[in-house]
Design brief:
The protein is mainly alpha-helical. It has 27 helices and three strands. Helix 5 runs antiparallel to helix 6, helix 10 packs antiparallel against helix 11 and helix 14 crosses helix 25. The longest helix is centred in the middle third of the chain and has 31 residues. The protein is globular and about 65 Å long. It starts with 10 loop residues before the first helix and ends with a helix.
Length: 615
């Protein structure tokens, strides 16, 4: 996860005393309003209606239930197949061995997909059709597990349909995490099982100019509509693109492909040399030229960079998109005002725990002490021992640590996890960034691996009870909710290291990130200015630091308005749910939580609250 450029530098000196915060929030309460009885004046008593015999509804037979469940599983299979066979990149992402799913790989288009308005319109039309097919299934006859999946699919399709007119409000080129940054990793970590995979790889490499051309056309249309990125963000994106465009001879894609070819024992020496030469030529020409053309095309749009305005000030569909994207990233169904209220409530609880921890490790925090064994292997072994106290047993999996290539290290996260195929979850990859080692702690590996992203994905994949389409449409908010809470839960049970230091380090980060998110909501959802943010933040920080944070948070609200939602919103959702329902037995709680599968938090809250009530 990427951090603020100036994040937390002033945190320890900036926070105000707990007693001030607690007093303020304890005084602001909402008094519940008693419901008023509805009355009707009747001058004379009326005769009670006569009872009439009614037929009891017939109980569904086992055969009827089985028929409806079979219909749902058939729908799930059709959805999965359409999704993963749309292009070879989708197939590679979710299916290590397509034949395991009855898929003939030769029938799948070998392209990077489509990034056009027409393709988006076609997808939305498909969503209408799938939603109608879903409605034809009698939900009441499904098992609890399938009813939950049914509700998840309904919400998913409804959200997709709701976004049909918002296509050009999406920004695919985000600093550090956009598709231009992910594309090199797609090729660098490509899996080769046979010679056809080699041919697919080279075909896809040749397809990059076409795909980036569609992205540029998309950005040009955004610019024509007054929606193009800010000039400050453009400079960051251009820097990312140029670093790849300048790597014709030094690109890591030369080395990763060469190493992969050396492992393909079915190739002759002549074939191996030919494929390596072909890849080297593509990287030197097609690959870097595609990045340069996208760079130059975006540079030409500089005069059309939008003003530094939030979605509220832009108004219209810009505001609609912001509200839609907020719900999508947070995996809930709240309004802007409801989300602010929810995050502020959680931050009060977080601050109380943070303050208590800080009082026990202030000197260590001030000295910048970090928690890590010194090696990834040491951190992994220690975390594996700790996590047995909070989560169900992990499947038997392996993990390979791969360094982020040099040309991408400057703007990439300290670490990242690559999701495995549904039938290949035993094999996992975690990227580590040597350039960001100062930002790496054991908490980073807890987030990405043990018991974070890797645990969640491999555990749910291994269950075999969650519908396949539900697994592959997982939202960012759901995924980051688990990984951020993995950090939090590990921090609370450290044995060999200072537990208070771990808690304070983690919560100080999220206390700040949550405020960044609230400020984005205030700027983009309510029209707040920097001065408004400063006034708001003075409730939490000393005055001289409130201005610094207000300016930083405002910049993020304008340039990357949604970036932190999946982290802050996701963390608070599961944090709040756990506090309400775990009741000391986190293993049982998380086992129940995980078995439902990826979904939206308002749906999950209903299930988990009911589970807790039944305990």
């Amino acid at each position: 996860m990427k951090v603020f450029k100036r994040i937390f530098v002033f945190f320890l000196a900036a926070v105000m005393l707990l007693s001030c915060i607690a007093c303020r929030f304890n005084c602001i309460t909402t008094k519940p309003t008693a419901p008023t009885a509805q009355t009707q004046n009747t001058p004379h008593p009326t005769k009670a209606p006569e009872e009439t015999a009614t037929e009891e509804p017939l109980e569904a037979t086992d055969a009827q239930r089985a028929e409806e469940e079979a219909a749902f599983w058939e729908l799930d299979e059709a959805l999965f197949m359409e999704y993963v066979t749309s292009d070879i990149t989708s197939l590679d992402q979710f299916c290590e061995h397509p034949e395991n799913f009855g898929i003939d790989e030769s029938t799948v288009p070998v392209t990077l997909g489509e990034f056009t308005e027409a393709a988006n319109d076609e997808w939305v039309a498909d969503c209408y059709e799938w939603r109608e097919k879903l409605s034809a299934i009698d939900r009441s006859l499904l098992s609890d597990q399938l009813q939950f999946a049914y509700d998840t699919y309904c919400r998913y399709f409804d959200m997709e349909i709701e976004s049909k007119d918002l296509f050009y409000y999406y920004e695919p080129l985000d600093e550090g995490v956009g598709l231009h940054m992910n594309m090199p990793f797609f090729f660098g970590l490509y899996s080769f099982k046979d010679e056809q995979d080699i041919k697919n790889y080279l075909t896809l490499m040749s397809d990059v100019p076409r795909y980036f051309g569609q992205v540029l056309t998309f950005e040009q249309e955004r610019a024509n509509r007054g929606l193009f990125m800010t000039e400050e963000m453009l400079d960051e994106i251009l820097s990312d693109l140029q670093s790849v465009a300048d790597s014709a001879e030094t690109s890591f894609l030369h080395g990763t492909f060469r190493e992969a070819m050396e492992k393909q024992e079915y190739l002759t020496d002549e074939q191996r040399s030919e494929y390596i030469a072909r890849n080297d030529e593509l990287v030197r020409t097609v690959w870097v030229q595609a990045y340069q053309l996208l760079h130059d095309g975006l540079e030409e749009l500089r005069p059309k960079c939008r003003a530094r305005q939030g979605a509220y000030e832009q108004g219209g569909m810009a505001y609609d998109y912001y509200c839609w994207k907020m719900k999508a990233e947070c995996s809930n169904n709240r309004t802007v005002e409801e989300e602010i209220e929810f995050l502020e409530k959680c931050n009060v609880t977080i601050y109380s725990a943070l303050y208590a921890a800080m009082m026990n490790c202030y000197e260590e925090l001030d000295n910048g002490t970090v928690i890590k064994t010194g090696t990834l292997e040491g951190d992994e072994a220690y975390l594996k021992t700790l996590m047995t106290k909070i989560v169900p047993p992990m499947p038997d999996v392996e993990v390979t640590y791969v360094e982020v290539p040099k040309e991408l290290q400057e703007n990439y996260s300290p670490a990242a996890y690559f999701t495995p195929a549904l039938d290949g979850y035993e094999h996992n990859i975690i990227l580590t960034n040597p350039k960001q080692q100062d930002n790496y702690t054991m908490s980073t590996l807890a987030h990405e691996g043990f018991p974070g992203h890797m645990y969640q994905f491999t555990y749910q994949y291994s269950l075999g009870t969650i519908p396949k389409f539900q697994l592959i449409i997982e939202s960012n908010g759901y995924a980051e909710s688990w990984s951020t809470n993995a950090e939090w839960n590990i921090a609370q049970i450290h044995e060999q290291y200072d537990r208070y230091l771990a808690i304070a380090t983690f919560l100080s980060e999220y206390f700040t990130i949550i405020h960044a998110t609230i400020c984005s909501l205030k700027v983009n959802g309510q029209g707040a200015t920097v001065d408004d943010l400063e006034k708001y933040l003075q409730q939490w920080y000393q005055k001289k630091y409130a201005r610094i944070y207000a300016e930083d948070f405002y910049d993020y609200a304008i340039d990357q308005p949604i970036y932190f939602f999946k982290y802050s919103g996701g963390f608070c959702e599961l944090f709040d749910m756990t506090n309400r329902n775990a009741m000391g037995d986190k293993i049982a709680f998380f086992k129940e939580y995980l078995h439902w599968g990826p979904s939206y938090f308002d749906l999950l809250n209903e299930r988990m609250d009911a589970w807790a009530d039944a305990q």
